[in-house]
Amino acid sequence: MLNTGILKELHGAMKSGKESKIYHGIDPKGEEVAVKIFLTTSNIFRHGRLKYIRGDPRFKDIPHDTTSLVDQWASKEYKNLELADHAGISVPKPIHVEKNVLILGFIGKDGIPAPVLREVRLQAAADWYKKIIELIKQMYDKAKLVHGDLSEYNIMIPNGYPVIIDFGQAVTTEHPEARAFLERDIGNINHYFEGLNVRTQSPAAVIPKDRVGVLVGSGGTVKSTIEDKLFVDLKIDSPSGAVEIGVKPDAPDPSGALQAKDIVLAIGRGFSPERAFRLFSEDNTLDIIDLHDFFGKNEAEIRRVDGRIIGREGKTRRILEELTGTAISVSGHTVSIIGGYEAVTMAKDALEKLIKGRQHGTVYKFLRRRRQEIKKEKALGLWEGQVPTAKKP
Ligand SMILES: Nc1ncnc2c1ncn2[C@@H]1O[C@H](COP(=O)(O)OP(=O)(O)O)[C@@H](O)[C@H]1O
Ligand SMILES: [Mg+2]
Known about the structure:
- With 393 residues, this protein is an alpha+beta fold.
- It has 3 domains: 9-194, Transferase(Phosphotransferase) domain 1 (Transferase(Phosphotransferase), domain 1, Orthogonal Bundle), CATH 1.10.510.10; 202-279, Ribosomal Protein S8, Chain: A, domain 1, CATH 3.30.1370; 283-393, K Homology domain, type 1 (Ribosomal Protein S8, Chain: A, domain 1), CATH 3.30.1370.10.
- The protein is 40% helix and 20% strand.
- The chain has helices spanning 43-53, 66-86, 125-141, 178-194, 212-216, 221-230, 256-268, 273-276, 292-295, 299-310, 315-324, 341-355, 360-379; strands at 9-16, 20-26, 32-38, 94-98, 101-105, 108-109, 112-113, 145-146, 155-156, 163-164, 171-172, 204-206, 232-237, 242-247, 284-290, 327-331, 334-340.
- The protein has a 5-stranded antiparallel sheet, covered by helices on one side.
- Helix 11 packs antiparallel against helix 12.
- The termini are far apart.
- Residues 385-393 have low confidence and may be disordered.
- Magnesium ion (MG) is lined by residues 153-154, 166.
C-alpha cells in the first residue's frame, strides 16, 4: 500500500489486540491515519465471528478458509464505518480497505491515540452518558446499525466528544439478533456508568416494533396505567422499539422499575395488556423460553414447535393454561409464561416436554398428576404457595 499511493509512511504498532494490530501512518497529504491490520491466524476468530456474519444479507457466501474470512471481516468493518459515517455518526473516517488491512482517520494527535472512555476521568459523567445513549440511538435510527461490542473500551474520547470505534462485528438492524445485541450494548454502557454513580435509564427493554402500539394503548391508556401504578416513566422510542424505564422521584421504592420492565417485555412477547397486567401482583412472575436455545437458527423447526404449542385454534395453549393456572404466549421464537412461581415452573416443565417432542396426551397426564400431588402436599401443609387453579385467562 505504500506503493499504491494510499500511505506515505507506516510507523510502529500502537496497539495490538488478540485479533488485530493498529499502526500509525501518514497519508500522501501528510495527514495522520490509523492502519488496522487483522491477523489471519486465529481459529477462535473464525468461531467467534461467524454469528455476526451469518444473518447479514451482505455476507451471503461465508468463505471456508480463515484467510478470506478475515479479509471479509476487514471489509465488513469498512462498510459498517461507511454506513455510520454517511449517517453522520461520530466514528473514524473509513479511508481504504484492502485484503486484511483497513485505513482509518486517526483519532488522536502526533501518533498518540486519544484515550478510550475507560481511561478518562469524566467531568459531568451524566452528560456523557446521555451523549453516548443518544449516539447508540442515532446509529440504530439513521445508520440502521447495531454495534454489538460496545463498551468503555470501544469509545474513544479525543476532545470533548465521543468517537465509537471497532465496527467489525456491527450488524444491520435486520440481523435476527440485532435487538439482542442492542440491548447488550445499552446494558454494557449502563453498567459502566452505574459504576460512576450515574443514574442510568436502566432497566431498558427492547420490544418488537409491531408491539409498540399495544404498549402505548389507545389514547396512551396502557402506558399511563403502568406509569401510574408503578411510579415509573416510560420513554418509548417507536422506530427502534427501545423502552427506557425511569423511576419517578416520588416512588415509594425503586423496584417498580423491574416490575414495569417485566410488563413491557410481556407485552412485547405477545401478551395482551390485560394478561400482562397480572404482573402488577408481586406474586406473579414472567418466564421466557427461547426456542433458539433448543433449535438454534432452525426457523422451520421453530415454526413447527410454535404450532404444536398453540394447537388447533389455540386449543393446546388453552389446556396448558387451564391445567397450570398460567397465561402463555407464543410469539416467534419465544414462549412466555406468566403466573405464580410454582405454576410457572410446572408450565415450563410441560412446555419443554412438548418442545422436545413428547405427545400432548402424555404431557397433559403429567400436569394432572402434578396437580394432584400439589393438592395432597397442600393438604399436608407442605407448602404455602398458591395452588394453580383453572382460572380463565
Ligand atoms: N482510528 C483510530 N485512531 C487512533 N487509534 C485507534 C483508532 N482505532 C483504534 N485505535 C486504537 O486501537 C485500539 C484497538 O482498536 P479496535 O478497533 O478496538 O480493535 P480491536 O478489535 O483489537 O479491539 C483502540 O482501543 C484504540 O486505542
Ligand atoms: Mg476494541
